[in-house]
Specification:
heteropentamer; A mainly alpha; B mainly alpha; C mainly alpha; D mainly alpha; E mainly alpha; B: mainly alpha; two-stranded antiparallel ribbon; 25 helices; 2 strands; about 70% helix; globular; C: 3 helices; about 80% helix; about 0% strand
Chain lengths: ~180, ~650, ~100, ~500, ~500
């Protein structure tokens, strides 16, 4: 009995977890939209990311999941929150400066996504992935990262360099510039 | 060839004169100008006489082959393209020889006369260069061996008359008259050109010889329409313009704005007869187009009568002569119309004598009374200017057709030929003869008899006429230089007719017009005499009537005029033809072009369309700019929508195949 | 066993949410966050496809995406600060000096 | 050790373990540029303002020149590098040269601008150099992920550059718009990459095309290409993804606009070329047909009534993107070469125009409206003349590069039987003449009503102008060389024909 | 050495000497007098060089002469191919003849930005000559477009009140017109692989062009539109009056004298040369347009209050003759058309110079402003009269020959064309003589006109050559026709059966 039930549970364990994380993702995403205050949006985004990490785990990409939590949810979102605090952004007021976005954009987006859904379903009908389908242990990842993808990896350094410089230039107090202005 | 007649000298001599006077004249003295002008025109005349003598009397074997007319001399290529060519080549036959003598002779005389008449004019040299230029074109016209070269002269004389009519251009009337003359002539030339195109199209050439060779085998056309008929009528249109026939005669009376010698030379003796010459020249074509001949005859007859009637009521001495010229030209066309080309040319010659004389006389009169042209302000001049009076009366007798003066012979010839074709022509011709003699003697009496009605001539009456120095006190006789030509012409008007005695003239021209008409059938001698008597009596009647009205009872005319009332007014106003033309053609054309074409089509339709499309583009541009609301979300909206479209399209394409 | 399409649909949904967020949110930062959301959606499909093809490269891409996201975040937030300094607002509808 | 070409080839024995020297040579320009960029970056704090402006600019300039030299070395070693990450062929060399040359000119023309606008030189030049690295990579990368990263490098650097006059609200705003929309579009591109990966299991363009040629076309691939097109279309400012262009160009510093409108565009076009012609999926050409027509029309229409010169040129750049897309719609070889030539010519003339604009705009970019240009022909004939030549080239008047560029594009289109597209194109180029003409009219046919200071042209700018002018005229009178080059490289990488409405490509049929 | 050895490069010389002059001029210091003299020297040198063409021209021979054919760009296959036949040679000479006169007439009237003016003038000359000499369609289009800019600038910079409007209108009209030609040229290249006029013509004639049958009509229209705008034919003519009224004298002279001829030349060379079939099919409406142009232009000219507008519309009328002649496909018609082109270039050029003389003195073209000028300025009046008569088409003047031949040709083609066209000779007399009367005859209406000076040296030197040329061309047209006729004959070769009509039964 128990064994049977356990096996059923095991059988559907994957599905259940997927649905659970998925629900969080969806909820978080929707919440991000409906929340008026940026902080709330940020928090819900963090939730989404965390849940995504879960999904990654289900797919077996444990390293990715870890990095997702550490870098993404951790570092990047902290940056966001920090900025929100810095500029102490309040409730966003509902100006409607753009009909185009609502009248053209949203319908367009909807049709697009419907189409894509259809495409995706048509593309992979039955095939399914087992739990932990493709384990991505760090050493394998490293093999790829430092051999096959060596060049992109190196190039990202340039990217980061630019980002830093840009941040410095743009965020540095304009007084520095203003001093030169006059 | 061993020897030739150097026909090219005829046009080029006067041209040289014109060029020299035109370029250097302003600076050089009057005397020099005179010498140049007279030398070159005189030289042409002398050469003409020499040629004539050579043709008539030389029996020198060296000249054999040269002198058997017609005689063509090639001078230079002009237009040569595949399938068509026209050269500077000259054509001499009896017809052109006659014209040659008339033109150079009368022309030379009038040159002499002008020396006196224009002496005081500030632009003396300009006048003579124009006059020589006219001679050049006229001689080209006469001597051309193809229609195109003839057309050069044709338009050229038009130009010369344009320049000379408008000689005193500060007078607006003169300027307009010149323009009118040129444009009306252009209308005629339009017909001429079309005729030329027809000739080219069907005979591939414009050389007289080739054209006539092409024509002669063709049968005489009976039907209304037909190639030759068309050509002839179109040529006639040209002639109407040049020779002032209905409906294109309107320019000639206005042309009297020009200096009187010009009226004498161009608008009486030579240029206006070019039409007759051209018709006669193309007789080969006309003879094969009876319909056209009829048209010519009718036009001629009507014009003769119509113009004569107008002549009655004119008071401007030159206007009277102008209308009489038109009417006389009508006679000539009547002659051509009835196939009596030689008679036409005969009348052309005599007319050149007496009408030239009349104009020169009138000029002398005007000169005497200091520029006055209104006969009502003249009268009793015969005592002041006896010579002028004498010569002018001779001319009057001549034109009136009093035997044995020149006019009698030629006019009688015409009437006789006309009678042979149809008495109607003859009838109208006779009536016209009556009217002619009436108004001519009217002129004579009004001018020379009675007592002087004009005011004392003050120095500056004929300001525009440019002689201002003399005109002291009473009317005065003209200087010798003007009288001599008068006398010579008077002599010619006296005896000029006798060349027609016994059809000499006709025989002379026979090689041109064919011998057919020379044989005057003896049977109808009687009728000929009868008709002659009739016409003479008619002329006499006219004289008598004029005598009655304008010598004995000078008060009558006014009464008659009043009684006639509106009809008389109509005559005075020349049947209102000018007004009608203005109302029917000129005004609608100008207004239509201004309102409908320029303001309407050009501005309101085409240009408006262009500018509107430009504005349309600008509006569209404004619309496009509205995409750029400046709002990021809108932009994102565009991108999202666009991407949706792209995705949809790509998927559709993928599924589609 | 979960069908691959489920993962794909989820990622697609996240992407769509990101787009919608961009379209409807007024606060610049939030808009930026929705971009991050889109990137996350993409990441998921990368991993899913990696599993599908058994190609580890798919997971490696995620790292690159994260780096890019980080870089973008740094620059983007700096830009937002700059804008805030000059305009004193975070409402995107009011950042429309440049238009037409 | 000094690398001679011979040495390279000898060293070309490939081992799976470590990258060989040849690999490094094949990315030598990128390396050199990055090194110089870092040098600039490091030196910047050490120098004070005035010397900094000069020295750093000089270093950057030297860097670009060195980059060009490096490109020559690179060109000697065609082939794949870093395990099929980049491919060095005529195509990539062409775009390397183009992009780096553009950077050089921009640096020259910025030289004076920096001092006038009081911009911190260090980051500015460094960003340009790094940006160029990204663009150069875009043209040679054949790995979608690398392309994505390179794209990001170039984009981010231009985001920052756009906002460089940050005490100007407009500049910050343009930077923001560019950034938000840019990353929005990039996300689309990335999703496209993901889908492509999902469809084919690979992200290497060559592999992808092989896979697609082999089997039946998976639906996902079409969708993927669509997404990528959205991203790239945004970068090249093709309708309907062009909306950002005018605003961003108006706000950004003038020399940077010159840079943004040429270099990243060229790179993006390079990528697009690979995507369109190497990964070829059905319907792409028709899609581009529509995009081209739209871009030309919208661009020209929008420009007709603009009064701000920068904005006007922005719209014109949209139109020109349209013209280039016309070439894409044509047959691969002719299309590719035509597009390549066009990008080069467009770079030359547009840089010239913007160089003048940036000099004339003066401190704070005060003078950028048409009215300010009244009577320029009198006050400074040389500037006016240069601008005129550039504008004429943009119109497409003979003796200028623009003429041949348009000409090749349209002839390529006609040879692909795209008659209607050609007619739309030529009509557009006719209408487009109007707004360029307006500027010329202002300069020569109107008397200046406002007092506009015209500062003398400094050496650097003069040099830049001279280069642009020379290039424009050279391409206009002796287009043969460049075109030949373009055609050779096109022949290398583009398939002869595509199995979709394109006429037999006829290259050089000398009777 | 004999100058004949120049023959191989003569066309290159003639075409590019003015350009070289312009470049040198740029380096010259801004001393107006030197600049004028230099420009005059350059243009005269060009004229002398261009005389080489008729001197060593083999008249009997129909084909192209002085050819030079070098590859310019390998792919697409563009050649630097130049050559002239009897048709284009005279147009080249016309251009080089008018340019020095333009320099002279601008001697005093242009006193600011002199340097730019003459630079533009010389560049324009090069472009114009290039249009007539190039035998490579691409090269042709190249020069064709190149004429636009200098002309537009001449109008826009040195023009009068509404100069900008006129310049832009001129530019846009022609630009949009010519893009269609570009499309047509591209099609031809795409399907023949060559831009060479001769090659393309032969390929078309031999039917070796794929899909030609379908495209021919469109190609014809493509070329036709570009040329019709330039001519300008009736509905496309509204740019002309504006352009002329606003343009400086020299601009008008070259515009009327040469630029318009580019259109007619194009029709003759390309529309007839490449698409004989289509030309014949479309002849009826083209000729109708031409006729409308003749009459309409004349009538509108008649009522113009502005002298330059009047002359401009008269150009519309005259160019109508040219088109009429071209599309009559008759020997006479084409010869005439060519001759009218030259004659119109001379006489209308002269008229514009004369109008410019008035403008220099009174700064107006309004006819009502003048009157009775013959007294204060007799020499001017005389010169004006000569040119007017030439333009009226008086025999022994250049105008007549051409119009006569055109009309006779048109008449042979269809009588009604000839007849309607012939009314033109009446209209021209009407509007020109009326204008002349209003300007020169009568009393001096405005006192200020009494003080107007007569022609000065430079003006005489500019105007009298025109008058002389008008006369010579009228008296000895054979000099020109001798070279034109064979070329025309060759051009009509595809219309054999039509030609036969010329000779008649």
């Amino acid at each position: 009995m128990l064994g049977a039930g356990y096996s059923v549970l095991v059988m559907n364990f994957h599905l259940i977890l997927f649905l659970a994380f998925g629900a969080v993702c969806v909820g978080g995403a929707v919440n991000l939209l409906v929340q008026r205050h940026p902080i709330n949006s940020a928090l819900s985004l963090i939730a989404v990311m965390a849940a995504l990490a879960g999904e990654y785990l289900l797919l077996g990409a444990e390293f990715v999941a870890a990095v997702q939590v550490i870098v993404y949810a951790g570092a990047i979102m902290v940056l966001f929150v920090f900025v929100i605090m810095l500029l102490n952004a309040g409730e966003e007021e509902h100006t409607n400066g753009s009909q185009v976005a609502v009248l053209l954009g949203v319908p367009g987006m909807l049709t697009g996504s419907v189409l894509m859904a259809w495409v995706v379903l048509r593309h992979s009908r039955t095939e399914s992935v087992a739990i932990g389908a493709l384990p991505g242990p760090p050493n394998d990842i490293a093999q790829l990262l430092f051999h096959d993808f060596l060049l992109p990896f190196e190039v990202t350094s340039v990217l980061i360099l630019i980002a830093i410089m840009g941040a410095v230039v743009l965020a540095s107090k304009p007084e520095a510039a203003a001093g030169k202005v006059e | 060839m061993t020897a030739n007649l150097n026909l090219w000298l005829f046009p080029l001599l006067p041209l040289a004169g014109a060029a020299i006077n035109g370029v250097l004249g302003k600076k050089s003295s009057r005397r020099a100008v005179t010498t140049i002008a007279l030398f070159f025109s005189g030289a042409a005349f002398i050469w003409a006489v020499k040629v004539w003598l050579a043709v008539m009397f030389t029996r020198d074997p060296r000249w054999a082959g040269v002198l058997d007319l017609p005689h063509t001399e090639f001078f230079a290529h002009w237009i040569r393209i595949t399938g068509f060519s026209a050269d500077f080549a000259f054509y001499l036959d009896q017809l052109s020889l006659v014209m040659l003598l008339v033109v150079t002779g009368v022309g030379f005389l009038i040159h002499i006369y002008s020396v006196g008449y224009m002496w005081d004019d500030p632009s003396y040299s300009r006048f003579f260069s124009y006059l020589n230029l006219f001679m050049f074109f006229m001689l080209t016209l006469v001597l051309a061996n193809n229609y195109l070269l003839m057309f050069i002269g044709w338009e050229g004389v038009g130009l010369a008359s344009y320049l000379l009519i408008g000689f005193w251009f500060t007078k607006d009337s003169a300027a307009s008259a010149g323009k009118k003359a040129f444009i009306v002539n252009r209308i005629g030339d339009f017909g001429f050109l079309i005729a030329l195109f027809l000739l080219i199209k069907h005979f591939g050439s414009l050389d007289f010889e080739q054209v006539f060779q092409g024509v002669s085998p063709l049968a005489s056309e009976t039907g209304e329409a037909g190639l030759l008929t068309a050509i002839s009528i179109l040529l006639m249109v040209g002639a109407c313009g040049k020779s002032a026939q209905i409906p294109l005669y309107v320019w000639l009376p206005d042309a009297m704005e020009g200096p009187t010698p010009v009226s004498a030379l161009i608008h009486a003796a030579t240029m206006v007869t070019a039409g007759v010459y051209m018709v006669a020249r193309s007789h080969v074509i006309f003879e094969r187009a009876p319909t056209a001949l009829m048209v010519v005859a009718i036009i001629g007859t009507l014009t003769a009568f119509f113009a004569a009637t107008i002549g009655i009521a004119q008071t401007d001495i030159k206007k009277v002569l102008a209308y009489s010229t038109i009417s006389q030209l009508g006679y000539m066309f009547m002659a051509c119309g009835v196939g009596a080309f030689s008679a036409g040319i005969f009348h052309l010659m005599t007319h050149a004598f007496f009408k030239g004389l009349l104009f020169l006389g009138a000029g002398s009169v005007i000169h005497a009374v200091g520029g006055e042209q209104d006969m009502r302000k003249m009268g009793g001049l015969k005592s002041y200017i006896p010579w002028t009076f004498l010569t002018m009366s001779i001319a009057t007798l001549a034109i009136a057709g009093i035997p044995p003066l020149a006019g009698f012979w030629s006019k009688d010839e015409i009437l006789w030929k006309a009678y042979q074709v149809s008495p109607v022509y003859w009838g109208i011709g006779v009536v016209t003869a009556f009217i002619t003699s009436f108004y001519m003697f009217r002129l004579l009496y009004m001018t020379f008899f009675g007592d002087y009605r004009g005011a004392q001539v003050d120095a500056h009456r004929h300001g525009s006429d440019g002689h201002d120095s003399h005109g002291h006190g009473e009317p005065h006789e003209s200087p010798m230089v003007m009288l001599v030509p008068l006398m010579i012409l008077a002599v010619l008007s006296l005896v000029g007719g006798f060349v027609g005695w016994g059809n000499h003239f006709e025989r002379f021209l026979a090689p041109v017009f064919g011998a057919g008409e020379v044989t005057a059938e003896a049977a109808s001698r009687v009728t000929e005499w009868l008709l002659m008597i009739v016409s003479v009596t008619v002329a006499a009647l006219g004289w008598w009537l004029a005598y009655l009205l304008y010598y004995q009872r000078p008060d009558l005319p006014q009464k008659i005029a009043n009684s006639l009332g509106s009809f008389y007014q109509t005559l005075v106003h020349k049947y209102y033809v000018d007004e009608i033309y203005a109302a029917v053609f000129v005004k609608p054309l100008v207004d239509g072009s201004t309102r409908i074409l320029w303001q309407g089509v050009d501005r309101k339709i085409i240009d408006a369309a262009v500018n509107d499309s430009a504005d349309g583009a600008r509006h569209a541009s404004d619309e496009v700019r509205q995409m750029q609301s400046g709002n990021i979300r809108s932009y994102a909206g565009w991108i999202a929508a666009g991407s949706a479209v792209v995705i949809a399209f790509m998927i559709w394409m993928a599924v589609g195949r | 066993m979960v069908p691959l399409s489920c993962y794909l649909l989820l990622s697609g949904f996240l992407f769509a949410c990101g787009v919608v967020g961009f379209l409807v949110k007024r606060n610049i930062i939030t808009i930026f966050m929705s971009i991050e959301l889109m990137l996350n959606g993409v990441n998921l499909s990368f991993v899913a496809f990696a599993a599908h093809w058994h190609a580890l490269a798919g997971q490696v891409f995620v790292f690159f995406v994260m780096v890019v996201a980080a870089a973008e975040a740094a620059v983007g937030l700096a830009i937002i600060i700059a804008v805030y300094r000059t305009r004193e607002t975070l409402n995107v509808d009011q950042v429309n000096l440049l238009k037409l | 050790m000094i690398l001679t070409p011979a040495a390279l080839y000898s060293a070309g024995t490939y081992s799976p373990t470590l990258p060989q020297s040849a690999d490094y040579v094949r990315i030598l320009p990128e390396i050199i540029l990055s090194i110089f960029g870092m040098t600039v970056m490091v030196l910047e704090p050490l120098l004070d303002e005035e010397t900094g402006q000069k020295v750093l600019g000089l270093i950057a300039l030297v860097g670009t020149l060195a980059g060009l030299g490096a490109t020559w070395f690179m060109a000697q070693a065609p082939g794949l590098a870093f395990w099929n990450m980049v491919q060095v062929d005529g195509f990539s060399v062409f775009f390397h040269v183009l992009v780096i040359a553009i950077a050089a000119v921009v640096i020259l023309s910025s030289y004076e601008y920096m001092t006038v606008q009081r911009i911190r030189a260090g980051e500015y030049y460094a960003l340009i150099l790094f940006g160029v690295v990204g663009m150069a990579l875009m043209s040679s990368a054949i790995e979608l992920v690398l392309i994505f990263i390179a794209l990001e490098i170039s984009s981010i650097s231009s985001y920052v550059l756009a906002g460089f006059r940050r005490h100007e609200a407009s500049s910050a705003e343009s930077s923001l718009k560019y950034f938000l929309l840019g990353s929005f579009a990039t996300a689309f591109f990335l999703y496209g990459v993901a889908l492509m990966f999902g469809a084919t299991g690979s992200t290497n363009i060559d592999l992808i095309s092989k896979t697609l040629q082999a089997g039946p076309l998976p639906l996902l691939a079409s969708a993927a290409v669509a997404f990528m097109f959205v991203g790239l279309g945004f970068k090249v400012a093709a309708a309907p993804f062009h909306v950002w262009t005018p605003d961003v160009y108006e706000g950004a510093p003038a020399p940077i606009v010159g840079f943004m409108s040429t270099a990243p565009k060229a790179a993006a076009f390079a990528v697009l070329l690979r995507v369109v012609f190497v990964i070829h999926v059905p319907g792409m050409l028709r899609l581009i047909w529509v995009a081209a027509a739209l871009s030309m029309t919208l661009g020209n229409m929008g420009a007709l009534v603009q009064n701000n010169v920068k904005r006007l040129l922005a719209y014109s750049s949209i139109a020109h993107a349209g013209y280039i897309l016309v070439a894409f719609a044509a047959s691969p070889q002719l299309g590719t070469s035509a597009a390549m030539f066009y990008t080069a010519a467009y770079a030359a003339m547009n840089l010239g125009a913007f160089a003048v604009v940036s000099h004339f705009a003066n401190a704070g970019e005060r003078y950028v409206t048409l009215e300010d240009y009244e009577g320029l022909g009198r006050s400074s004939p040389l500037l006016a003349a240069t601008l005129t030549v550039s504008l004429l080239s943009l119109i497409g008047i003979p003796m200028t590069g623009g003429f041949f560029a348009k000409f090749y594009v349209f002839s390529a289109a006609v040879q692909a039987n795209l008659i209607w597209l050609t007619i739309i194109g030529v009509l557009n180029s006719g209408i487009g003449a109007y707004y360029y003409l307006r500027i010329i009219v202002m300069m020569y046919m109107r008397e200046s009503r406002r007092e506009v200071p015209v500062t003398p042209v400094p050496l650097a700018l003069g040099l830049a102008l001279a280069v642009c002018l020379a290039a424009t005229l050279y391409l206009g009178i002796f287009p043969g060389g460049v075109l030949q080059n373009a055609q050779d490289s096109a022949r290398q990488f583009a398939p002869q024909t595509l199995h979709e409405g394109s006429a037999p490509a006829l290259v050089s049929t000398v009777p | 050495m004999s100058t004949e050895s120049l023959s191989p490069i003569i066309l290159t010389l003639v075409t590019f000497v003015p350009l070289a002059g312009a470049l040198l001029l740029m380096l010259l210091p801004r001393r107006d007098r030197d600049i004028r003299v230099f420009a005059l020297v350059v243009s005269l040198l060009t004229f002398v060089l261009s005389l080489h063409l008729p001197v060593y021209f083999h008249r009997a021979q129909a084909g192209f002469q002085y050819q030079i054919n070098k590859q310019w760009v390998s792919t697409p296959n563009i050649h630097y191919h130049m050559g002239v036949d009897g048709i284009s040679m005279w147009l080249v000479v016309l251009t080089t003849f008018l340019t020095p006169l333009c320099v002279l007439i601008s001697w005093k009237s242009i006193h600011e930005r002199v340097k730019e003016f003459f630079i533009l003038l010389l560049i324009l000359e090069t472009a114009l000559i290039g249009v007539f000499t190039s035998l490579d369609l691409f090269l042709f289009y190249f020069f064709w477009e190149a004429t636009l800019i200098p002309m537009a600038l001449l109008i826009g910079i040195f023009g009068h009140e509404r100069k900008v409007y006129a310049a832009v209108k001129f530019f846009m009209y022609t630009m949009i017109g010519s893009v269609f030609m570009l499309a047509a040229i591209l099609w031809l290249y795409a399907n023949t692989g060559s831009f060479d006029f001769v090659v393309i013509r032969d390929k078309i004639a031999s039917g070796a062009v794929p899909g030609f049958a379908a495209a021919a009509q469109w190609l014809f229209l493509g070329f036709f539109l570009a040329f019709a705008v330039k001519v300008p034919l009736f509905p496309f003519h509204t740019w002309l009056p504006d352009a002329h009224v606003e343009a400086p004298t020299a601009g008008s002279v070259l515009l009327a004298g040469v630029l318009l001829k580019m259109g007619t030349y194009g029709l003759l060379r390309f529309n007839l040369g490449l698409f004989p079939e289509q030309s014949r099919q479309n002849a009826w409406w083209v000729m109708t347009l031409a006729l409308i142009g003749i009459i309409y232009g004349a009538l509108v000219a008649m009522v113009q209050p502005n002298m330059k507008k009047l002359i401009a519309y008269s150009s519309v009328s005259h160019l109508g003759f040219v088109v009429l002649g071209i599309f009559s496909f008759t020997q006479a018609g084409l010869n005439g058309a060519m001759f009218v082109m030259l004659a119109h270039g001379i006489s209308t050029g002269g008229l514009f110079m004369l109008a410019g003389v008035l403008h220099d003195r009174r700064h107006t073209y309004e006819i009502s402003e003048f009157g009775g000028l013959a007294l204060p300025m007799p020499v001017y009046a005389a010169s004006y009269l000569v040119i007017v008569l030439a333009s009226v088409g008086l025999p022994l003047m250049n105008g007549f020959i051409g119009e006569f031949l055109v009309l006779s040709g048109a008449f042979q083609d269809k009588a009604v064309y000839g007849i309607l066209g012939a009314t033109g000779i009446i209209w021209s007399a009407v509007y020109l003589l009326w204008m002349y009367q209003r300007v020169f005859y009568g009393k001096v209406t405005h006192p200020v006109n009494n003080s107007m000076g007569d022609l000065i040296g430079s003006e005489k030197m500019a105007i009298w050559p025109c008058a002389a040329a008008a006369l010579v061309m009228g008296v000895a047209p054979i000099l020109w026709l001798g070279a034109i006729d064979p070329a025309v004959h060759a051009a009509l070769a595809p219309f054999a059966q039509v030609v036969s009509k010329v000779v008649g039964p």
